[in-house]
Amino acid sequence: MIGHKIRQFRKELAISQATLATEISITVEAIRNIENDIGSLQTLQTVLSGLGLELTGLPLVERLGEQLKSIRRSRKYSQRHVCEMTGLTQPTLINLEKGRGRLSSFYAVLTFYKTSLSVRKQRRLHYKQGATNSWNTSKDFLEKIYAVIPVFDLDPATNADSYVVAETHFYEEHDGLKQPWNAKNVYLNPPYSTLGTWVAKAHEEFYNGNAETIVALLPCRTNTEYFHTLITPSADVLFIQKRLRFGEARQQAPFASMLVVWSRTNIIDEFAKVITGTILRKHEIAAVAE
Asked: Cα–Cα distances in Å, from 209 out to 47, 158, 178, 181?
């Protein structure tokens, strides 16, 4: 139905199946299945959100299950009638309208509804380079950050849609990976396609003494090498309890986030007062290692 169009959009964004799988915390096989129109409705929703896509031809509500229910109700069909016409059981239809179930069942219902599906970029999102690379920090979350550090001296990985207020911004053409971060307070929300490189740069700038405090908002990827070699030995981590909304998005991101702070102070405690989560301190990691 739409798998080939999802694949086409992914390739246009120059995102591999492996990279996307890491970004949205599912398997490569699950993405491959979606692109072949098999799998689950939940996985389809996750892949669409991760790529910043939405389906056309459906009512303007956020979730796929709600869209199915909206069509049925607008046509005044009972669940029993839809099941009789599609060969599905009523529990299957109920699950579909809750956003759960198999894609084959989802497509069967849409075929009965004579709905023509296509895929487009989400109109409700406001990311400059696609949802998987530039997840701009929301204004609401930045207010919490500013409650602890009112003014940042540098944002080394910014873009035109960013809300971060700083004395100096490095845009793509400035290449913040090649510039020294001579600043007291740095806020970093890097492109997700090159996270490990940006973490290494932050680690280097802090230990070179170029930056006194670096606050980085990152996806929570505890399975990566950089998490274990560059973050936990040298930075405090606040695992954020709830998934965040980024930019102008109405939906939560399909992944968890963490606030990583390189500093020689206990400023992580101040962040924990305004951001609900769990702290992992670098000195606690060192103590376990000993």
From this structure: 41, 22, 16, 9
pTM (whole model) above 0.85: no
**In which region does residue 52 sit, left (phi positive, over 0), alpha (psi from -120 to 50) or beta (all else)?**
left
Residues of the chain predicted below pLDDT 70: 60-62, 122-134, 248-251, 283-290
For Cα atoms 185, 190, 191, give the angle at the middle one, nearest 5 degrees: 165
Which amino acid, residue 271? F
Token pair, residue 55, equals 């389906």
* Residue that has been written with the tokens 């999802």 in this structure: 6
Q: For residue 79, with 0-12 CB atoms within 10 Å meaning exposed, 13-18 middle and 19 or more buried, which class applies?
A: middle
In one letter, which amino acid is 268?
I
- Packing angle of the helix pair 64-74, 90-97 (nearest 10 deg): 120
The C-alpha R_g of the chain, in whole angstroms, comes to: 22
For tokens 């599609």, what's the residue? 86
Collapsed DSSP state (helix, strand, coil) of residue 147: coil
DSSP character at residue 138: P
Distance CA 238, CA 89 (A): 45
Q: What percent of the chain has pLDDT over 70?
A: 89
The H-assigned helical ranges of the chain are 3-12, 17-24, 28-34, 41-51, 64-74, 79-86, 90-97, 103-112, 139-146, 195-207, 225-226, 268-274, 282-289
Residues 6+ apart with CB under 8 A from 94: 79
Closest by CA to 53, choosing from 87, 106, 9, is 9
Structural contact between residues 285 and 252, judged by C-beta atoms closer than 8 angstroms: no
Per DSSP, the residues of 218-273 read: EE--TTSHHIIIIITTT-EEEEESSPPPBTT-SSPPSS-EEEEEE-SS-THHHHHH
Alpha carbon of residue 105 to chain centroid: 27
